[in-house]
Amino acid sequence: MPQQDIVNRLADQVNDFNRRVRDLEEKIRNLTARVNTLDDTVLNKTKSLSQDVQGLEDEIEEVRDRIANIEVDIKEINREKRKFVSSQELEEIENYMDLMNPIHSSFTTKKEVKEIAQGNSSGLSREQVEKIVDRKIKSMENQPDNE
């Protein structure tokens, strides 16, 4: 029966090897399933991220277009702004209008000029005429504005 023992031991070892092979095959199947699941998850995430990136690129392009439109609008506003009068120019215009305003200014009449001219021939010097004109200008400046 010693041969029977050897055959039994060999049969036990073969059975043990078969069990181990089946266990390894099961582990390989489980690992394969996990790898497939991970692959699917990675593919889904990659697709999702690609869509997100594409959406962001579209939004960035839209923002670039808006910025370009705003820049064009700003240039147009600047062109239009040049057509307007500056505050300094407006002040100058107001000053000229005040000087030319017949209500606030007193102009010399023809009669006054003739009298001064006739008076000049009667002995008024040029300095005297200038003093009269200066007094007239000062009196105009000292008049209170009714604005």
Mind explaining what this structure looks like?
By secondary structure, the protein is mainly alpha-helical. Helix content is 84%, strand content 0%. It has helices at 2-82, 87-100, 110-121, 126-142. The model has no long low-confidence stretch (mean pLDDT 84).
Record keyword descriptors for this entry.
4 helices; 147 residues; 0% strand
Question: In a nutshell, what does this entry contain?
Answer:
With 147 residues, the chain is mainly alpha-helical. Helix content is 84%, strand content 0%.
Given the C-alpha coordinates, what overall shape results? rod-shaped
List unreliable stretches of 5+ residues: none
- What radius of gyration results from the CA coordinates? 54 Å
Q: Give the proportion of residues in helices.
A: over 70%
Order of helices and strands: HHHH
**Class by alpha and beta content:** mainly alpha
- Cα(first) to Cα(last) distance is 140 Å
Average pLDDT for all residues: 84
Bin the strand percentage: under 5%
**What's the story with the biggest beta sheet?**
none
| Continuous helix count | 4
Number of separate strands: 0
How is the topology of this model organized?
Layout: H1 2-82, H2 87-100, H3 110-121, H4 126-142
